[in-house]
Write a structure and sequence with these properties.
CATH superfamily: START domain
Mean pLDDT: 94
Number of domains: 1
Oligomer: single chain
Number of helices: 4
Order of helices and strands: EHHEEEEEEHH
Largest sheet: 7 strands, antiparallel
């Protein structure tokens, strides 16, 4: 199953990439949403190799996921791998400079299942693909607006 969203951001590509690789702010966001986040491996800022163990509630059940920064290509792309039980995910963020002060961000998330239990979960998610895709697009739109707002304020 795949989700894809594209947003144009009124900020330079280097600024947007710096926000995408600001992992401590993502950790804080997960903590605010009730997840437990433990950094298991740290790499230099903007480089591949960082990893986290994340515990969160999904569909009324506690889940665990391992997140790894698989590839970083400054300032144009970032790839994360996620493994949770029998579910595997790849999140790719690509940036394209449209002009000196405008960046196009495309984020693609792909989920696949390796166990029967995970396949059943993925099948139920496929039934709700439309509403999940809308939520995915809205969340990335809100993220893009937040990046623009921070850039305008000089943060």
């Amino acid at each position: 199953m795949q989700f894809k969203s594209t947003e144009d951001i009124e900020a330079p590509i280097d600024y947007v990439f710096a926000r995408l690789t600001d992992f401590p702010s993502f950790e804080k966001g997960l903590l605010r949403r009730g997840a437990t986040v433990t950094r298991t491996r740290a790499a230099a800022p903007g480089q591949a190799g960082s990893a986290w163990q994340v515990k969160f509630k999904f569909r009324g059940k506690m889940r665990e996921a391992q997140l790894d920064v698989a590839r970083v290509d400054p300032p144009s792309s970032l790839e994360l791998l996620a493994i949770s039980g029998g579910m595997h995910g790849v999140i790719r963020a690509s940036l394209l400079a449209l002009s000196a002060g405008r960046t196009r961000m495309t984020v693609t998330s792909e989920l696949s299942a390796t166990t029967i239990t995970a396949r059943l979960l993925l099948q139920s998610l496929k039934l709700a693909h439309g509403s999940l895709a809308n939520r995915y697009h809205a969340r990335l739109g809100a993220y893009a607006e937040g990046v623009e707002e921070r850039y305008r304020k000089g943060l």
